[in-house]
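This part of the workshop introduces the protein records we will be handling. A record pairs a protein's sequence with a compact description of its fold. Backbone structure tokens are a discrete shorthand for how the chain folds in space. The question running through the whole workshop is how a given chain folds. The record below serves as our worked example for the rest of this section.
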Amino acid sequence: MRHRVERIRWPVAAVVGVLVVGSGTAYAVTRDGSSAHYRTVLATKADVEQVLSTSGTVDAAHRADLGFGTSGTVASVAVAAGDTVRAGQVVARLDATSLTAAVTKAQAAVARALAQLETDRTAQAQAVSDAAATPKPKQTGKPTSPTPSGSTSSASAATLQQLKEQQDAVLQAQSAATAAIAAAKDALSAQTTACADAYQDRAPAGGGDQSAAATSTADTACTAALTEVQARQAAVSAAQDDLQKALDTLAGTLSRALASLSSSSASPNAASRTSAASVRVSTTSSSTSTPSDASNGASSGTVSAARLAADQAGIEKAQADLVDARQQRHQAVLRSTRSGRVVSVPVTAGDRVSAGDVGAVVVGGRAVTVVASVAQDKIDQVSVGEQVRVTTPGQSGAADGTVSAIGLVADSSSGTPSYAVTVTVEDPTISLPAGSQALVGIVVATAKDVVTVPTSAITRRGTQATVRTWDGRTLTRKSVTLGTVGARQVEITAGLAAGDRVVLADIDQPITGAADSVNDRGGFSGPVNFKGVGPGGPPVTFGSPPK
């Protein structure tokens, strides 16, 4: 078998980071003489850095009033007036006993939600397994031949595998629908703000060119925001349709299984199996609303398809509550947001304080702060003391900073809950004027000398990740465990070894129906088709390997 290896000449563009690894890595197009056409690269050992990107507002004030993030009793005060402190240094602590208990309670709620989902999945699997193993009723006057036990076992295994895939599809569709609704709320809030600005910025009569330009800019922003709202609403509709289709498919499988068991219930053994399969829904599980159970064809009193979607929604709510509880506990420690001298400490051990009460006042130093926001589903990745790179549009280079504080209460005004994160830059090496906007890159994880592959080699479906490997003749899909996820490379902790050849996205096939996977790789929210990017080259379409 002959292979022809060609180097791909990549266009120089900001979007290249989505699908391309760092410099020095060669990509190849492999052909086996048939219709197979794969771009492959070897898994290699490298360093990976995971960066959480956001933006924020610069504050150059030299005074910092350090306020408590939650209510409680002051357990200890670590500084006194006149002391010199650095950004991130502990100033005071609250008694965290009740806050720790709240975290434990939230962890137990997550465990119960996960256990409920597993119980319901098992009950459904039991019903389908029993249906596959139940002998069909004998037909009068016609002899029947026994079915080989091996055939029955094989059919049962195939049926259970199909059920598992249908269950996974429901859970993934439920999560996608939840995410789509949150994104639509966020877009609607942004549109409200943008269009309010457009109306406020209306140029008065005789306002001149400047006023007209401002009005035009505001109108453009409002129009763009309205378009984004429409796109997000369409995405919600599509996600809900996908969820309903997944529910209908699973409900059909369950209904057929229960019907099969009912038809053979004259047999004592079959009746026993039917009773075991008809598991009542626990009244302690999540009450999150889902499509009607009745519309999914499952028998009353059994674990329905819609119940599985409700279980998944319950898990996501419990996990969000756990994030909130952990954030509350983090706020039991009051840290300085900047370096300088302590000029006031108005609290002592034993004092009762409320959220927002000032625990110390710090002044001085050249440090500036950047207050950014991090979404609720990512805030668990952020910790005080983590390294941060701060940049601004139009300037080269970056200023080094650290996370010095994390907000307590989630802000839901935009529709998507997020937390305020304060970054302190002790010695700015670039211009960071007060009130300006800065781009913030929080280094949330690093991995040294680990097995890595390009991000475009990874396919994600919910919590599962897979890659495709190519040995020159056979294309194989492998499940892998991801570690640190960088912008261009991903750490593989299990499932691959250095030297394995993995398949990248097929440049000849457009991505369709893979918005979530693309978004995981680099922030795009839909199909990507960059036309005319290369110098004199044909249009470039990024896509997935052929199935």
Notes: The domain at 52-95+334-444 is CATH 2.40.50.100 (OB fold (Dihydrolipoamide Acetyltransferase, E2P)).
